[in-house]
């Protein structure tokens, strides 16, 4: 450690220590970290397995060190031994080659209300959004005041556990919500997004969008805390329902026709402009390999119908799908970034085994799909401009034999 870095490390206000990668021994710690122990008339342990309550042997450090090195873990929580006490701390971990820098945050007394102040509190209030933190081990849910406002209840009556939260969720939506959150935990994912209905204290239901993200992990890499938001999207859902009731459908596919879609798309674009939310358009070519043109008309129609139904089942309830040409579809993704759109579209071009079988039975194949993406406002400020940009992306993808192209 060079002299300037050593001095900066010793005097940094955040408690921190450095561990030798190969052995798990504590090489150094700063004054602030030592001060935590001074309060209890104790000295920091000499190695990770004696400092950390969760580490039974030195092998635990090697497992954690490898996870830090491969960036599987950059933040975790653990019980740290301070004298004869155990203090739950959040650890920020950075691999430095032969050593690991660990910055320490005491989380025993995390106060959610502290997160809802000044600008954040204003933003949450104005956007009708609510903040929550979920501790997976204890199933403790901590809700912000904004969630109490959203649900029309007192702060001390907000859900405090998963069962209490599920009691408020519409019976038709509980299984889907529970399955998606369990998948997030089981597969150790970074984030998830889901829409569902939740009951207010006046017995009415709100449509909300929930976005959850992994906040901290345990030293074994499992998810310890998830933080997220719920946002009221009832007005958006009401608009979608109105659009569906006014729709004109294509006879072969059951999708919106080009004319009907134009009206729907313009309303969604207007909503995105007023609310400053992202909007993504995708042009889907169902026959980019020109395979369908060689089929008899009846089989070709079955293939287009099969592909359209498959794609419709893969999109979200808020999305709008239309057939705008014989073998081309136009998909509008409200409140969706390019990154999220690519995630959704990758699920479309990569069907599961059972989905692939259904496609084959209907003379269809996902390998024939080519998708061009355009986004508002970068690629246009009108539906016509966005459609043109998406079409240009499709043509580029077809020429370069790429499945998804962002304009």
TrEMBL record:
Where is the PAC domain positioned along the sequence?
A: 192-245
Note the InterPro entries from the entry: Biofilm_reg_signaling, GGDEF_dom, Nucleotide_cyclase, PAS, PAS-assoc_C, PAS-like_dom_sf, PAS_fold_3, Rev_trsase/Diguanyl_cyclase
Pfam families on file = GGDEF, PAS_3
| Superkingdom, natural source | Bacteria
All copies of domain GGDEF, residue ranges: 277-407
The identity of this protein, by name, is PAS domain-containing protein
State the organism of origin.
Answer: Marinomonas colpomeniae
